[in-house]
Give the backbone structure.
Amino acid sequence: MSDKVKVVIDAMGGDNAPAAIVKGAYDAAKEYGERAKLLLVGPEAVVKSELAKYEGSDSLDIEIVNATEVIDCNESPTKAIKGKKDSSIVVGMNLIKEGKADAMVSAGSTGALLVGGQLLVKRIRGINRTPLAPVLPTINGVTLLCDSGANMDAKPEWLVQYAKMGSIYMEKVVGIKKPRVALVNVGLEEEKGNQLIKETYPLLKECKDINFIGFVEAREIPYGACDVVVADAFVGNVIIKLYEGTAGALLKIIKESIMSTTKGKIGGALIKSNLKSVKKLFDTSEYGGAPFLGLNGLVVKTHGNSGSGEIKSAVRQCITFNEQNISKIIKENVADASLNAPAES
Amino acid sequence: MSDKVKVVIDAMGGDNAPAAIVKGAYDAAKEYGERAKLLLVGPEAVVKSELAKYEGSDSLDIEIVNATEVIDCNESPTKAIKGKKDSSIVVGMNLIKEGKADAMVSAGSTGALLVGGQLLVKRIRGINRTPLAPVLPTINGVTLLCDSGANMDAKPEWLVQYAKMGSIYMEKVVGIKKPRVALVNVGLEEEKGNQLIKETYPLLKECKDINFIGFVEAREIPYGACDVVVADAFVGNVIIKLYEGTAGALLKIIKESIMSTTKGKIGGALIKSNLKSVKKLFDTSEYGGAPFLGLNGLVVKTHGNSGSGEIKSAVRQCITFNEQNISKIIKENVADASLNAPAES
């Protein structure tokens, strides 16, 4: 029992909570019950009655932990984390803080998860910032984006840590050998870029422990040019949102164009399933959740409109993360190295 | 004769020079000869023999201006502009400087055009920086992106000028009434963003002369959420390149998916023309060229792989720009206003 991974699930996070979240927890417990114990956090009565809908749920390794409040996506993150002590996010994170859990999955407010991560779960000593690192689909696989929007106005040494943590994650959790790490820039020549890029590049070039392949232009990301995309949070946020927006808009006008002619309508009916699978491939919510890297424990943020499938994937992610000892590897290879390095700002 | 717009065309710029460029000049002269005189700049003998291929070209209002050197895309822009005095870009820009031309079209090195614009054509006094402002396709029209990659490490007052110049351009050249101007951010709430955004937002809010609608998230740009997208050059460059990359990658996997099944192949044949028109719609090179806004004269950069159609569109753009007195409007409404404002950094 004791070597099972203990995963908190925020039953009240996201647009489809609690129904889809509880269903996801049930599915995860059924499939991964040998490896994980789930702690479902939310208003006890509500969660209990949701869970009771599923056959055999009482025999699964799920514990309900009561939390009476919910943090809304529109609330100020810092105020919410400090004020709502009995919210599912705060209660869940305190379980990690107290050593009663290893990881947490939530489809709730990204801001609250970021702030809660810093204040409650806390960064590994020596880690400057914890990037939110979603996996993006490419035409031949996936790539990890660090940081997709957590820490504005990045410093060069933050990006260096993102690169190292991202590389570890892609290797150990996603299973890519010697992940190709690249820094987003406006061109491939060394003299190009803004101040941040110019200061970061030489530092990354010196990193012996990652497979740094240099710059990547945004155009090449969807073609799978690298396995880890390093960017400051503002640029990373633009990347993930434009990925979603461009793909969505393009599929919409393809559909409209096809439906505008009779020939198109017939053809469209024949390729419907193809388009559907492509849409699924480019849907960034299809790949479980995005971890905040560098915390004392794992916090995984899933898409706001997560269904049960994503919650289940995120639980699997937490299990792998923990079984692979990622936090320990990050501590030893990234955090301690920074602490022992000559003074950094 | 004298009130015709005088447009320089760089015969040697881009992948398809000189053939496609000269063809574009010929087409433009045929269609817009009443409104424009074209100055085709390049090695005289080469340009002459290219032009002679087209029937009646000698009766068109095209003047060949000799320039023996060519600036390559891989050259250092500043070195090239300073060193190659007889290159088509330098000779062409000097024509504007000396008042012998009003505008210039080139598919050549963006960097050289930027540097040449600053050093030879020069900024309007009071304009801080000249953004490269391409038009991006959206599902229901186009939007102007300022800056797509010209001036790194922007300051708030630069972005304010981009917003104003972009608004003028969209209104007068593209014909959009009261263009909706938006600032790219990671969210819609006022407290979100990096330092640059937080400092720029209140300045834009105070601008009475533009229709500033607040923040736009990258996700909404392809859906036509605004008419002018304001971003610093790094973010703008990521936007235009990811637009291209995501659309290209998506169409590629749609094609592959369709071709992988027999049913798909039949359907694919029926919707081929639909897909083609969508591809054209999302091809950022379909919309003429991108102006550098705020110079004493117009410099239009067209895509590196420009064909004759783009050159012709860009000539039309130059004619409208000039006939609408855009430089004068920018001078009076943006530059002079900045000069008269209380001290800015």
Observations:
- Residues 233-259 of chain B form the longest helix (27 residues).
